[in-house]
Write a structure and sequence with these properties.
The complex is a heterodimer of chains A (about 400) and B (about 150).
Chain A (H helix, E strand, L loop, with lengths): L4 E4 L7 E4 L5 E5 L5 E7 L2 E8 L6 E7 L4 E6 L3 E3 L2 E2 L4 E2 L2 E3 L6 E6 L5 E6 L4 E7 L4 E7 L7 E6 L5 E6 L3 E6 L23 E6 L6 E6 L6 E5 L3 E6 L4 E6 L5 E8 L2 E6 L5 E6 L2 E7 L3 H9 L11 H11 L22 E9 L5 E8 L3 E6 L5 H9 L4
Antiparallel strand pairs in A: 1-30, 2-3, 3-4, 4-5, 6-7, 7-8, 8-11, 9-10, 12-13, 13-14, 14-15, 16-17, 17-18, 18-19, 20-21, 21-22, 22-23, 24-25, 25-26, 26-27, 28-29, 29-30
Chain B lengths: L7 H4 L17 H21 L2 H9 L9 H17 L5 H6 L3 H16 L3 H20 L1 H9 L5
Helix pairs in contact in B: 2-3, 2-4, 3-4, 6-7, 6-8
The chains are: A mainly beta (about 400), B mainly alpha (about 150).
């Protein structure tokens, strides 16, 4: 399956998405206060249910694959956690005790905790208290100095990476006494009580850290920041590989294997980076822009005289100020699959050995696209971006 | 009524300071100034010999940034712009390709700083715009984004 599957979900931006375990359903938010659950019928996604418990815009959704629970976070500084009945979603409100918006939420690998980043410069780690039958939040505050933009759990269920608008990516310990067993020492440290900072990293030119991610083993951390760079941290040294890219910043990333990352963001196409402790580099893009482009720029020339290239040249010069000729008209149209910023990239299909073979992306253009990670086109990135002008 | 004019952020102990967002220049004020003057002399030598690339390398190396080094920053800007003015338009792409990524980012910062100074538009406008266009072709929009996000303002 090498051609990306493109689904046009809506005309509004898809702010976040999360698939269930068998990928037959997806929960997403269309930039409002409702979460929609879509189910795949044939080749289309159809709305099955709408969850309307939030009264402010939903910023992030995560679906726990094994226990089949969804958690949603919204700017109204609450989290909602529907449990599944057989056909019914039952919402449970979680009070985070933050006085600002919740920006990002993720279930832990064992699905017994979830972490919520917020604008109150804190991360609320919530665990279930069976005695009172509710979710309790503990806050990670120091030394976060600004909004938390993204969080990611380490496979050991205890360590949490957080990217924040104070230009730093940090690794915290989110060990909760009655929920977690004492973790095995990792490269990030040992004996880690709650709120220990295991590492604090920044990219050389600074910039808000939009996305963080642990590698599948948890031994490597990657973060994407607003200065158009991707940084990969090996805590042993610490060795930080910083790749400066020549395009607009990435806002989301996902590891597909221990040595490969897919990142996406403001230049509307997912790109692949690959490397090891010795060094990392950009490999190419998942979006082969050269093939699909021809269709969209061809005009239906039925008018004879009026569609001649000479006519078009003068018309472009008059209406658009282009004096370059017929091919310049294609400049303003994006030839990538996503026509606007990609908001979220998530692993979609995971092979038996743990490597991700397909990823899903959602974007501000209202599309949900599933990409095959193996199809990387090298020429695409530089060719397209060389043509991008101010 | 004057309570509306109170700057509440001044009273907030936990407010995020500008200085927390980047690591400050480790050299002190006088040291930076003397280094800048030495660089200026070295650049002038290189330009007399016709070595544009060498001059640019020196001028863009360890730029002064931060708060209390205003004179050094202005001197460096003048030095950099003098190199840009002298370079022939046909030589610009070759020079740019031989710069390191750090130097390209720093050069873009100076181009924007030059464009932002009032009055410079008449004197060096076309030179700065020409360099900007060529540098964007080589380094991409990522370079420009880095100028905007980097708190170490030159």
């Amino acid at each position: 399956m090498s051609v990306p599957e493109v689904y046009s979900i809506a005309q509004t931006p898809v702010t976040c998405h999360a698939f269930n375990a068998d990928r037959s359903q997806v929960a997403l938010s269309l930039n409002d206060n409702k979460a929609y659950i879509y189910v795949k019928q044939g080749k289309e996604w159809v709305v099955e249910e709408t969850l309307t418990e939030h009264d402010k815009v939903i910023t992030s959704i995560d679906w726990a694959p094994n226990s089949n629970r969804i958690v949603t976070a919204s700017t109204g500084s609450q989290c909602l956690h529907p449990l599944t009945g057989r056909l019914v979603w039952k919402p449970t409100l979680v009070l985070l005790r933050v006085n600002r918006a919740a920006t990002f939420v993720r279930w832990s690998p064992n699905e017994d905790k979830f972490a919520v980043g917020s604008g109150a410069r804190a991360i609320a780690v919530c665990s279930f208290d069976p005695e009172n039958n509710w979710w309790v939040a503990k806050q990670l505050k120091k030394p976060i100095r600004s909004t938390v933009l993204s969080v990611d759990w380490h496979p050991n269920n205890v360590l949490l990476a957080a990217g924040s608008a104070d230009m730093k990516a940090r690794v915290f310990s989110a060990y909760i006494k009655d929920v977690d067993k004492r973790p095995v020492p990792t490269v990030w440290g040992e004996k880690l009580p709650f709120n220990t900072v295991c590492g604090e990293y920044a990219s050389p030119a600074g910039g808000w850290v939009h996305a963080v991610g642990f590698s599948p083993s948890g031994d490597v951390l990657a973060f994407a920041s607003h200065d158009s760079s991707i940084n990969i941290v090996y805590p042993g040294g610490p060795v930080i590989h910083s790749i400066r890219i020549s395009t607009l910043p990435y806002v989301t990333l996902a590891w597909t294997a221990e040595d490969s990352i897919v990142a996406a963001g403001h230049d509307c196409q997912p790109v692949v980076f690959s490397g090891s402790e010795a060094g990392w580099a950009l490999v190419g893009t998942l979006d082969d822009t050269t093939s699909g482009g021809a269709k969209s720029t061809a005009r239906a020339g039925t008018m004879g005289k009026l569609s001649s290239s000479a006519f078009n040249t003068f018309r472009n010069a008059d209406t658009r100020g282009h004096t370059g000729g017929a091919e310049v008209a294609a400049d303003t149209e994006l030839l990538t699959v996503h026509k606007n910023t990609i908001t979220s990239v998530r692993p979609y299909e995971v092979g038996r050995d743990g490597t991700v073979s397909r990823v899903s992306t959602s974007g501000v253009d209202g599309k949900l696209v599933i990409w095959d990670v193996g199809v990387v086109s090298v020429g695409g990135v530089t060719g397209r971006l060389g043509g991008m002008r101010m | 009524m004057s309570f509306r004019k109170i700057d509440v952020d001044a009273y907030d102990e936990d407010v995020l300071q500008e200085s927390e967002l980047y690591s400050p220049d480790p050299r002190n004020h006088a040291q930076v100034l003397s280094e800048t003057k030495q660089k200026q002399a070295a650049v002038r030598n290189s330009l007399n010999k016709g070595d544009i690339l060498g001059a640019l390398n020196v001028a863009l190396d360890s730029p002064p940034y931060g708060h209390n080094v205003e004179e050094a920053k202005n001197l460096t800007l003048q030095t950099v712009v003098s190199v840009l003015n002298i370079t022939k338009a046909t030589d610009i792409p070759t020079v740019l390709k031989s710069l390191s990524q750090d130097e390209q980012d720093t050069l873009m910062k100076y181009i924007y700083k030059g464009m932002g100074m009032p009055g410079w538009g008449d004197v060096s406008g076309s030179v700065l715009l020409g360099w900007h266009e060529k540098l964007t072709e080589v380094a991409g929009t990522g370079c420009i984004v880095r100028v905007m996000t980097d708190r170490r303002a030159v």
